[in-house]
Specification:
Chain A: This is ATP-binding cassette domain-containing protein. The complex is a heterodimer. Chain A contains eight helices and nine strands. Chain A is an alpha/beta fold. In chain B, helix 6 runs antiparallel to helix 11, helix 10 runs antiparallel to helix 11 and helix 11 packs parallel to helix 12. Classes of the chains: A alpha/beta, B mainly alpha. The structure holds adenosine-5'-triphosphate (ATP) and magnesium ion.
Amino acid sequence: MSGAGLPVTARGLARGFGGPPVLRGLDLHVPAGQFLAVVGRSGSGKSTLLRLLGGLDRPDAGRVTRGGGDEAADARTRVMFQEPRLLPWASVLGNVAVGLGAKPGPDGEARAREALERVGLAERASEWPEGLSGGQKSRVALARALVSRPGLLLLDEPLGALDALTRIRMQGLVEAAWRRDGFTALLVTHDVSEAVALADRIVLIDGGAVALDLAVDLPRPRRRGSGAALESAILDRLLDPSARPAS
Amino acid sequence: MQGSMSEVERRAAPPTGGGSASRAAAPGRTGAAAAGRLGRSRHAGWLLPAAVVAAWQVASSAGVLSDAVLPAPSAVAAAGWQLTRSGELPHHMGVSFLRAVAGLAVGGSIGFALGLANGLSRLSDRLTDTTLQMARNVPHLALIPLVILWFGIGEEAKLVLVALGVFFPVYVNTLHGIRTVDPKLIEMGRCYGMTRFALFRRIVLPGALPSVFVGLRFALGVMWLTLIVAETIAAQSGIGYMAMQARDFLQTDVIVLAIAIYAALGKLADGVTRSLERRCLAWHPAFRA
Ligand SMILES: Nc1ncnc2c1ncn2[C@@H]1O[C@H](COP(=O)(O)OP(=O)(O)OP(=O)(O)O)[C@@H](O)[C@H]1O
Ligand SMILES: [Mg+2]
């Protein structure tokens, strides 16, 4: 398995659900291996964009191209949802193995174990997910997303429900995996400081399009608070009353 | 939690008196401990039936209960022993058991298959669900006259009635189980590259299983009820038939024996379902052994 990231390109994406359109002609190019954070007000269409980029939903207009745009790109795309979405009837290890896809191969179990080890849950492999804490479930979901060495990882606020400490730990795990495997990462988040801590680039979605596109030129590993100026600039833009409110 | 409590207790106990002495001094706590032990015991459920049988035996022996109303448990046991030796009881029990199992197998598998079909295919659902929901509201025992007219009082009649009775609970609950599988899990499976068959086997079926078991439990109740009625009305063998014959000869002990056997068979079926549930639903917190 190559660890190379998949580039993603969206051209003129439009999507609505009956009311006013949520996305209106959004253009976005994410180069291979980039860590992109998507921020925006609640209801601005971040999840809608992520679902379109991940192929979970179809646009009304426009197109999404992942990698070469072939079937292989589908198998190399992984999504981490807002909830862990673990199968309650499969063991922790079985849940990680789901990430191997339709053809796990002969070394599938060993790879699932390795992925579980990376998130520090090797000794819980044979348990039911029900007995895990919220943070541990998120780690299993992360192991499941990473076990197949994806080229593109889409994260829709997967850490939203975690306490501050667990969150920081998970951010560390995500960043470490990204640095090691070199996948393209797209993180939707409410938390601007999380975006500044992790991303190479931050885009702000407003009015159905990219309203702000900022590079984060901070050396890694980043210290907490090192991007305070950038963070407050984005927050100001998010809270700006003169900007159009999200429909 | 419990460990730390006793730790505190031990430390709070006066140095001269041991922990057991101070505990014996508090009868309320001893009673609570006994109740706790009882609650954890697997056999606690048999306490009440055993007490009822004992009280009943005492009342019969003391002459409070007349034999014509309710024979003593010992008399019922004696009747059971005698009928077992004559081979009558095993024969009737075997016949009833086979009828129950055959009816459950036929009706249950049709209900399960149709539940799956209608849960998975919109076309199948459109075609059949309305009809089935209408038929569900007809009490199946109302069909007894028609079934006897069609099949006489042979085995087919009993099979049809039991199968009809168990069909609906299994069908309705299988369908409900499939419809209520978490769509978020299905979306996850799809986006992680599961084929349609893998989605069914790994997400839809296990997700629907708890509900299928609820249907099976309902079906078992309906199965015995139907069988008792059918055997009482139209049969020449089986426990129900044995009880009806005993009525003609005023053998209350055999009648009570038949009732006790139904209770025992019902309990057995329940036990089998429970162990199946514990095996198939081990992941479910409600079925942890
Ligand atoms: N499946 C759907 N059906 C109907 N409306 C939808 C659907 N998905 C999204 N919407 C609507 O689209 C708009 C954008 O939703 P989306 O979930 O993309 O927002 P978001 O930016 O992710 O918000 P949040 O930060 O609260 O998660 C909302 O108004 C929402 O009601
Ligand atoms: Mg969202």
